[in-house]
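Regression test case RT-17, inverse folding.

Input:
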């Protein structure tokens, strides 16, 4: 596969991730049940891959297992609140809220990774808040509830990203994902048991289209996308991948316009606020890259 083909693969992955928001509308299942199926299918797909590649999933310490348990719950909560937001409002709103993950990382990363607080990221975060204010100016009570779920989803996504950034330093990414999916499945099963919904009648009553969309979501948008991303990062670098992923809300909003006709439901203010948020998120990636290059090129003082 040539270099250019990896760029195509990267944008195919981002397109599939962008489509996950659309699936929140196309799959007619409660958010808890939808995510339960997504995690189960993704876990089966990843498990087959690990068996085929004969990769070990043993952990070095109990602390690693405990950490993965916590992050697995973060992953489950991120997806639950994400789809809850979409089901209450629109796919465009859900994915736009997810773009604010960067804002949460601004204050979480210094706490977890002991990194210096960035005033630039804080200022960019203020622009994101301004964008959210413009987006929500014409909201109904139900839309505000969806906004709360969406922003909560972004917070859980930030927690997931920051803690995984620390875990991946000592644990293979495939092992991390396997444990997090497993814990997420047990966590969701516990919630469904508590809600008296953990029955065959509840879990497996769905339309034919729901079934096929769930397979697409679990196998392609989750298992395949994750494994393919690992290879793409190796070929193109972390910066190219992370910057390109910021295009996910663009793909989702465009798909929502053409597939769900959400442009008929949303005002011009929404799209103006969305543009501010997306530009800020992409600008954040460029600024980080430039600062990293400056730090790398800075001459080392000799004593």
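Golden output:
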């Amino acid at each position: 596969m040539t270099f250019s083909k990896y760029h195509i693969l990267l944008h195919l992955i981002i397109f599939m991730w962008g489509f996950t928001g659309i699936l929140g509308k196309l799959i007619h299942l409660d958010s808890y049940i939808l995510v339960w199926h997504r995690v189960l299918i993704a876990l089966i797909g990843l498990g087959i891959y690990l068996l085929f590649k004969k990769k070990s999933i043993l952990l070095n310490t109990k602390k690693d297992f405990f950490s993965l348990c916590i992050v697995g719950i973060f992953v489950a909560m991120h997806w639950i609140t994400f789809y809850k937001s979409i089901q209450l409002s629109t796919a465009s709103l859900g994915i736009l809220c997810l773009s604010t993950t960067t804002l949460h990382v601004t204050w979480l990363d210094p706490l977890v990774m002991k990194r210096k607080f960035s005033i630039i990221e804080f200022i960019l975060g203020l622009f994101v808040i301004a964008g959210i204010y413009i987006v929500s100016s014409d909201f109904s009570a139900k839309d505000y509830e969806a906004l709360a779920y969406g922003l909560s989803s972004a917070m859980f996504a930030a927690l997931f990203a920051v803690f995984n950034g620390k875990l991946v330093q000592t644990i293979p990414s495939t092992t991390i994902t396997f444990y997090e999916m497993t814990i997420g499945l047990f966590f969701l099963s516990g919630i469904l048991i508590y809600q008296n919904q953990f029955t065959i009648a509840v879990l497996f009553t769905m339309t034919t289209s729901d079934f096929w969309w769930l397979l697409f979501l679990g196998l392609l948008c989750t298992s395949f996308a994750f494994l393919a991303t690992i290879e793409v990062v190796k070929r193109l670098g972390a910066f190219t991948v992370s910057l390109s992923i910021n295009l996910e809300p663009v793909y989702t909003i465009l798909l929502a316009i053409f597939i769900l006709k959400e442009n008929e439901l949303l005002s011009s203010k929404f799209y103006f606020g969305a543009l501010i948020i997306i530009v800020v998120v992409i600008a954040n990636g460029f600024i980080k890259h430039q600062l990293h290059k400056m730090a790398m090129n800075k001459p080392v003082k000799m004593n």
